[in-house]
Design goal:
2 copies of one chain form a homodimer. Chain A is of the alpha+beta class. Chain A is built from 5 helices and 5 strands, in the order βααββαααββ. Chain A has a single domain, classed as Alpha-Beta Plaits, CATH 3.30.70.100. In chain A, 39% of the residues lie in helices and 32% in strands.
């Protein structure tokens, strides 16, 4: 199991849109995430600061991410979620955090 | 299982001390954490911003926290860790984050 811990900033005027969007995620999105071996996926908010935690349990992260990134469901989701972020693309708005402690 | 996601600020001049302290945690501290039903405990850093994630798997959080808080090991650990935080006590320096999305 590999942990991913990401930081990103939301546009202040888009925080509520982001909250509303994620309050009732589409079942087909949840299914896609699980199918791509992403679990225990938790997103938390502090003002405009977003903290994303997830675990990858598969054995080919690149391939699973490609499935996710090429899925029509994900593209539809992004039309709503991407405008909420500061930055245009995931590589731009997600910042990997440095894990300084882990206790299983 | 209940997730806890916390935010806190480190004093800029204490960031390296905090990193060094957590790079080699004492085995008796790790044992204590597990015994108190805290698992998957991950601390990540972004500048002076600290994000703490852990899961509680027991059935009496207050009682387990009391064991932890009254342990001599923890008190010894705090003599090193507490001075790194902005704020004096855990209630003061830990801020609960709002979880806006969860996917198991």
């Amino acid at each position: 199991m590999k942990r991913f811990i990401l930081y990103s900033d939301l546009k202040p005027e888009k925080v509520q849109d982001y909250i509303d969007l994620h309050a009732n995620p589409w079942p087909e999105l949840i299914e896609l995430i699980g199918r791509c071996n992403i679990h225990n996926y938790s997103i938390s908010l502090r003002g405009t600061q977003l903290y994303t935690y997830y675990e990858y349990t598969g054995d080919d992260y690149e391939a699973d991410m490609a499935v996710m990134d090429n899925s029509p469901v994900m593209h539809r989701w992004w039309t709503y979620s991407k405008p909420c972020f500061v930055g245009h693309d995931r590589g731009e708005y997600y910042e990997d955090l440095t894990e300084v402690f882990y206790c299983p």
